[in-house]
Amino acid sequence: MQSIVDFIVSLNIPLITQPIAKLIIDLLLAAVVAVLAPSSLVILTWLERKIIGRIQDRIGPNRAGPFGILQAVADMVKMFTKEDITPTKADRISFNIAPSLSVMAAIMVFAVIPFAPGFVGADLNVAVLYVVAIGGFSTLSILMGGWASNNKYALLGAFRVVAMLLTYEIPMVMALIVVTLAAGSMSMVKIIEAQSSMWYIVSLPVAFLVFLIAGVAESGRSPFDLIEAESELIAGFHVEYTGIKFGMFMIGEYVHMLALSFLLAILFLGGWQIPFINVAALPGPVGPILGFISLMIKVSCFVFILMWFRGTLPRFRIDVLIDFGWKFLVPLSLVLVIAVAVAVKLAQGFGVWAETVALLVVNLLVAALAVQSQRLVANSRRLK
To answer: Within 13 Å of residue 198, how many CA atoms lie on the same side as its CB?
Structure first.
């Protein structure tokens, strides 16, 4: 980014100093993210229909445009043209704010996402805390929409959000703490740089699985999509929403899925890092371009996995979902945090590879302990 700033300043445009040039680039990046993130709904919905169609031995959309690509555009036009209805006794201010808050919560995560070496909206030294804080907005928006609708089914759906999302937010935060302990920083850029020798998906596989499961639950994707529960609560928290307001909740879900894929790629797959290549040291724009391509390939893999989940896994029952979160993931993540903290302290000063081996051993031991404890619980229940 600094090279681009220097290029703009070298043009000798009146009033364009280095701080102003940097501000212009930051505003352009913010505008691009604010436009492209919601626009990704068009591609992601088409892609999801095609992938699930292949999984279920169907064709998927193939009528509107080449390969059915315009089907998502047609759905978007339908959303914009449908009548916007607000219930008579609804809290109008909260009812109308909730959908836009859902989209904003997902988009704001991209402010701390490093897309390539030197290309990040804000390199905060507390970026992990920022992501956790912003994640609470999505819960708030859904709870606000369900409560403001003045509908008992919408309110029950919103209560499910509080029960489920808060349950899975704890192991997600614990997984983030594990990554922070291993990297020694809460900055996204520093976490990527710490994976130059080895990605955390290798040394922290249990933390990766915990974050993946909790992240899928936080985004409300299948098999954790009980916050809608259309088979039980009509359509859940957004039953009273129509037209573009309903569409904004859908945009928020897909942008949240995209943000989760970016976080998984950055926290556990080295972000823009490429094995055996020092991307940041490459001359000119080669490094940023290769880094961005590397990151997008990793993000695409996680997007495919999340869509694969939706096409194959059955929906969980709400009591099973809550039990799995509180009785398995939360204790597992707490033990993992303590074990990783001890391993990092003991391996300190012995080099990167010694720390990698120590983290991997600790993760495998915690996984073995979790499997053995579940086996004992299952045997005790069988005896009863």
So the answer is: 18
